């Protein structure tokens, strides 16, 4: 019988006959239990053992010899989305923010009024008890 996938091959004839029926397997006995995971577990065990022995030194060598790839690797380890608190105002409600803003505006308004001798304006400074964003 010819081999391959030509017009007279077993594969072609099998397809013409309808192929596999629903629920039918080409290997009814299946793969022996654990055969696939045994290889993966053995491989990972060997990699872990090697890493525990040489991992730190490999990182140092990698960093020293290929710093651009080292930085790229570190960047890929970071989460794609990093939630960073950038403001102490972040957790305030809209009402609390409005109250803070009104207070700051009143203080700035008072500090901008003329003071001192002869009606000279002084330089306005934000009140020390009002948080600032930097």
Give a nutshell description of this structure.
The chain has 134 residues and is an all-alpha fold. Helix content is 51%, strand content 0%.
List the helices and strands and how they pair.
Blueprint: H1 10-16, H2 35-65, H3 67-77, H4 94-112
Describe this structure in words.
The protein has a domain at 34-79. It has 4 helices and no strands. With 134 residues, it is mostly helical. Helix 2 packs across helix 3 (67-77). It has helices at residues 10-16, 35-65, 67-77, 94-112. The model has no long low-confidence stretch (mean pLDDT 79).
Class by SSE composition: mainly alpha
Output the number of helix runs: 4
Q: How much helicity do the residues have?
A: 40-55%
Number of strands: 0
Query: What gap, in angstroms, lies between the N and C termini?
Result: 81 Å
Radius of gyration: 36 Å
Low-confidence spans: pLDDT under 50, at least 5 residues? none
- Mean pLDDT, all residues: 79
**Biggest beta sheet summary:** none
Tell me the strand percentage band: under 5%
Order of helices and strands: HHHH
Shape: elongated
Provide keyphrases for this structure:
single chain, 134 residues, mainly alpha, 4 helices, 0% strand
């Amino acid at each position: 019988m010819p081999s391959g996938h030509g017009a007279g091959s077993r594969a072609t004839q099998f397809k013409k006959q309808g192929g596999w029926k629903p629920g039918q397997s080409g290997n009814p006995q299946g793969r022996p239990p654990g055969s696939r995971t045994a290889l993966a577990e053995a491989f990972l065990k060997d990699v872990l053992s090697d890493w525990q022995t040489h991992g730190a030194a490999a990182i140092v060598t990698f960093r020293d010899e290929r710093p651009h790839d080292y930085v790229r690797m570190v960047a890929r380890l970071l989460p794609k989305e990093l939630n960073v608190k950038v403001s102490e105002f972040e957790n305030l409600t809209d009402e609390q923010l409005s109250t803070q803003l009104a207070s700051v505006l009143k203080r700035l308004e008072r500090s901008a009024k003329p003071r001192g001798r002869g009606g000279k304006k002084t330089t306005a400074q934000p009140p020390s008890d009002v948080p600032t964003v930097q």
